[in-house]
Every structure is written in C-alpha cells, then in structure tokens.
Specification:
2 domains; 0% strand; flat; single chain; Four Helix Bundle (Hemerythrin (Met), subunit A); mainly alpha; 324 residues; 9 helices; 74% helix
Length: 324
C-alpha cells in the first residue's frame, strides 16, 4: 500500500527527473541553433567510437558543433537512466495501476525519443529533428504530470474550498484549448527553426496563443481555487519571459533598424536568445498542460463528490466534502 511518505519521495524523484530532462532539451535546442545536428555522421557511435568513450571534452575548443551534439547525446543517455529509475521506484512504491503505466510509458517514450534522434542523424532528416523537438516537449510535460499525480495535493485537489463546486464549462474549454494552441505554436516555431518556413504564421500563432493563454490565466484566477491560481500565476510568468525572449530572438536575428542595430548571424547574443526562446516554449506548454489537468481533476472531484452527496440520506450531504 502506498504511504504518504513514499508518494512524496516518488514525486520528488519525478521532479528531479524533469530537471534532468532539461539537460538534453537545452543541449538539443542549442544543437538546432548552431545547426550542429549532423556534426557526427554516425549513430549510436560518434566518429566510430563508443558514445561513452568518445573524448568529448577535447572538442570544447576544437569543434563547437561536435561538443554540443555529443553533449546532447550524453544528456539523452542520462535521462534514459533516470527514467529506468522512475519505473523501478514506481513499481516498488506506487499501487495505482494507471500511475505505474504512466511511468512505463515515460520510459518507452524516452527510448523512442533516443531512436528518433538516431534516425535524424542516419537519414540526415531535418523533419525528424522537428518531430524530435516536439516530442521532447511532450515527454517533459508528462514527467511533470507524473510528479503532480504522485504529489500530496492530487487526492484532495489542493484542498478545494468548496468540494461540491465543479469548475465552469468556459474554464474547461479554455484549459483544454490553450495547450493545444501552444503546441500548434511550437510546431510553427519548429518549422521556422528547422526548415526556415512559416515565419509569419508563427507570429500570428503567437498572438492567438498569447490571447488564449491570458484568458485561461484570468479565468483560473477568478475560479477561487488556490490549486489553479498558483499554477496560473506560474504560467503568466513563463509566458511573459517567453514573450521577452521571442522579442530578443527576433531582434538578434533580423536586426532593429530604428536603433541601427544590425543582426550578426551566430553572434553569442543571437545564440542565447534563440536557444532560450525554444526552451521557454516547452515551459509554457508544460505549465498549460499542468493547468488543464488540474482543471479536469477538480471537475472530476467535484462531480464525484456531488454524486456521493446525492446518494446519502437527507441531512448527511454535509459529510460528502470529507469523502476522498
């Protein structure tokens, strides 16, 4: 039987796994920015050498592209090992079948992600690199959802103030539509980064996604549920950061004539803004998914408690709020 203590440790390990996942995500974004995806022509070996025996640090000054790409490969191996640990810990400490299945699904997804990265190299396919990046954002979001589901607030829904109150239909719609819009925007951003396409569509999508996200944040804050408000505020913060990074990425890539600023391709500031913009997009998606799942969870808890209260004898409905 799972105890509260084991839940906390499992959730903490999931948070650590999500943090480790940022290493291959960050390195992968840098690989794309530097166009270093084909720094090595082979995989899983690196220039014919075992991945773990390759003299990686020698490339720090000698070959920037190889240093970054091989670092991405090593980071991918690291998240693979942490995913194995997540499954082992879950099977030992977690009794819920769907949570166990989710842990196994994360491991399978990480393995497929590694194979997809290898295919991108072997086939020299930029489209595969695009899919590789999008899939990484989904894996990252899923790991954080695992941490949420094993956390102390999952059962109670963050100790809702009114356990009989379900969230509004408009908030449910916004909460579901927002991550879909953000993921679509990430797809357009990937087309810009990997294929040099859909720049203006990406800008239009940014406006739509921002408006929709802002509406979701406002509705969540007005819901009166602290469990929603806390993540909504987090989403607002990462959204503002992402907008600032997007502006920086645009200026450092295309210049800013009113000030006389001329963009220099592959300048340090351009590399920084473009890479950070890509990573921040994954945080925006992750926070929107977190918010959507919390909204659906509260709606389910409210409905379940209402049904239990309705089935109790008259005068006993007040007890339903204590049922979990």
């Amino acid at each position: 039987m799972t105890t509260a203590s084991s839940d906390r440790w499992l959730s903490r390990y999931a948070v650590l796994t999500a943090a480790i996942a940022l290493l291959p995500i960050g390195m992968g974004a840098l690989v794309t920015t530097l166009d270093a995806g084909m720094a090595f022509l082979d995989w899983p070996t690196s220039d014919g050498q075992n991945m773990f025996l390759y003299p990686w640090l020698q490339d720090f000054h000698a070959n920037r592209e190889k240093f970054v790409e091989h670092g991405h490969r090593l980071a991918g191996s690291l998240i693979g090992m942490f995913s194995i640990g997540l499954v082992a810990l879950t099977l030992r400490r977690e009794s819920r079948g769907w949570v166990r299945s989710l842990a196994i699904g994360i491991l399978i997804a990480v393995i497929l992600q590694g194979l997809l990265g290898g295919f991108r190299v072997i086939a020299d396919a930029r489209v595969a690199a695009l899919v590789h990046g999008l899939f990484a954002s989904l894996i990252f979001a899923t790991i954080t959802l695992f941490a949420l589901a094993t956390g102390s607030n999952w059962t109670s829904g963050g100790h809702v103030s009114d356990p009989m109150n379900k969230v509004s239909s408009s908030l449910k719609f916004l909460a579901i539509a927002t991550p879909l819009a953000i993921f679509s925007q990430s797809l357009l951003g990937g087309l810009v980064r990997h294929l040099g396409l859909a720049l203006h569509e990406h800008l239009a999508g940014a406006i739509l996604a921002t408006v929709l996200t802002a509406a979701t944040i406002a509705a969540s804050c007005r819901s009166g549920q602290a469990w929603l408000r806390s993540v909504a505020i987090g989403l607002l913060i990462v959204l503002l950061v992402q907008m600032a990074l997007g502006g920086g990425a645009w200026v450092t890539r295309f210049g800013f004539p009113p000030t006389g600023y001329v963009a220099v391709q592959q300048a340090p500031e351009q590399i920084l803004f473009r890479t950070a913009h890509a990573v921040a997009a994954m945080f925006v998606l992750m926070m929107s998914v977190q918010l959507a799942v919390r909204v659906l969870r509260l709606n389910w808890l409210g409905g379940a408690r209402f049904q239990r209260a309705d089935s109790l004898p008259v005068g006993s409905a007040t007890l339903a709020g204590g049922v979990r």
